[in-house]
Design goal:
about 400 residues; mainly beta; six-stranded mixed beta sheet; four-stranded antiparallel beta sheet; 30 strands; about 45% strand; globular; disordered C terminus
């Protein structure tokens, strides 16, 4: 889940409802009453994108979603697919979805899960094809972030400890002994001297990277293409990533990893078949096994399956990599073998496997890429090769609160 920073959202806090409210049937009639006083709209606080749907969280705790809901991942099987952003829940503090399963962190401290639980990844204490319930966490576990990694889910607590649930069949997450723990309830992955003080996590079905509070990054899982950026062959306990000493953010695609350091330098490692690392591209070198600097003056990062996004300090948004659904956003169908500028005046970026959302400094929301399930929220199922503005409404309740 991407969570915005208050400094980045200063412009968004001044949004007016009249400039944002819209739906599939109201796009041409945004102001029903010319004499009505403007109403200040809630601003976007977080975005979570996955293959089949997209969710945005407003700062008043309202959760909006668009796209498919085949497994009940939006909170209930009764919620129908939508093609524009609609309210699905209130009182939400945070969320994370992988396209078939979801965690919802509620403002009252509760943790609600919904969707596919075939591998016990939702931590309910029982595996099953579907779950929709509030779960009880182990004593002392206060979640701050959830992350799906294949058939497992990881939870990062406010104390920096990491927990895991699910069968972890891919072995993306490893304990200090190099084993791949599994189960249908959350158990602690951290241990004394191992994965303590974790500040952020990112990963894929095959690997996980952990950003520690001291600025180092540790990684475990599959390292066949160098995505871990370590000296280890992978498959064992997490090891420190080479050359990284002062990281502030991490992002991960299917086969690559991005690391942003405090000085604005962006490093990348792993598979580069589509140019997703963003640096120099050589088709004869399909991977980079150690972190390599690919850009400077970067303030935020995001990664799709094989596409990378970098937001500069001045608000310019760059993208590189696979462009099969137009997710690079430059209006062409060809892959980008190096970072190219897509937008300006951007405050935040979030990426799904094949689509992305961009929050501009003026508070408007834009989307690009894959849209077969309606996950862009533009009232169509047409893939977009250039960013299109996405409107949302704050009063539609599609089932669930």
């Amino acid at each position: 889940m991407f969570r915005t920073k208050s400094a980045l959202l200063a412009g968004a806090s001044a949004l007016w409802l009249s400039s944002m409210l819209a739906s599939c049937d109201l796009l041409g009639n945004l102001l029903p009453d010319d004499h009505a006083p403007p109403v200040k709209a809630p601003s976007i606080a977080a975005m979570s994108l996955c293959l089949r749907n997209s969710m945005i969280l407003l700062d008043d705790g309202t959760l909006l979603a668009t796209g498919a809901n085949g497994s009940g991942e939006l909170g209930s099987l009764s919620i129908e697919r939508s093609y524009d952003l609609r309210q699905i829940r209130t009182g939400v503090a945070g969320m994370q979805s992988n396209g078939s399963s979801s965690f919802f962190m509620m403002q009252d401290g509760g943790i609600f899960v919904s969707g596919n639980n075939a591998f016990g990844q939702l931590g309910t204490g029982h595996a099953g094809n579907y779950a929709s319930e509030e779960i009880t966490l182990p004593a002392g576990a206060v979640p701050e972030q959830f992350l799906f990694a294949g058939s497992a889910a990881l939870m990062r607590g406010t104390n920096g400890e990491v927990w895991i649930s699910g069968d972890n069949n891919e072995g993306a997450a490893r304990d200090s002994a190099g084993a791949a723990p599994s189960g249908d309830s959350f158990i602690k992955l951290s241990s004394p001297g191992y994965l303590e003080n974790v500040a952020a996590m990112a990963g894929s079905a095959g690997h996980v990277v952990f950003l520690l509070s001291d600025g180092t990054v540790w990684a475990c899982g599959d390292n066949s293409d160098g995505r871990l950026g370590t000296e280890s062959p992978g498959g064992g306990a997490a090891q420190p990533m080479l050359y990284i000493e002062d990281a502030i953010a991490v992002a991960a695609g299917k086969t690559h990893t991005l690391v942003l350091e405090s000085d604005g330098d962006l490093y990348a490692c792993g598979g580069n078949a589509y140019g997703q690392l963003g640096g120099e591209y050589d088709p004869s070198i399909p991977a980079c096994t150690a972190p390599s600097k690919v850009m400077s003056r970067v303030s935020a990062i995001a990664a799709g399956d094989y596409t990378s996004y970098a937001l500069t300090e001045r608000g310019d948004l760059y993208a590189s990599g696979l462009n099969d659904y137009g997710q690079v956003g430059n209006g062409t169908g060809g892959d980008a073998h190096g970072f190219i500028q897509v937008l300006s005046d951007v405050a935040a970026v979030a990426a799904g496997p094949k689509h992305a959302f961009f929050l501009k400094k003026d508070g408007t929301l834009w989307a690009v890429g894959h849209n077969y399930f309606g996950q862009l929220g533009d009232c169509t199922v047409t893939a977009r090769a250039r960013p299109v503005q996405i409107f949302y409404r704050d009063s539609m309740n599609a089932g669930g609160d």
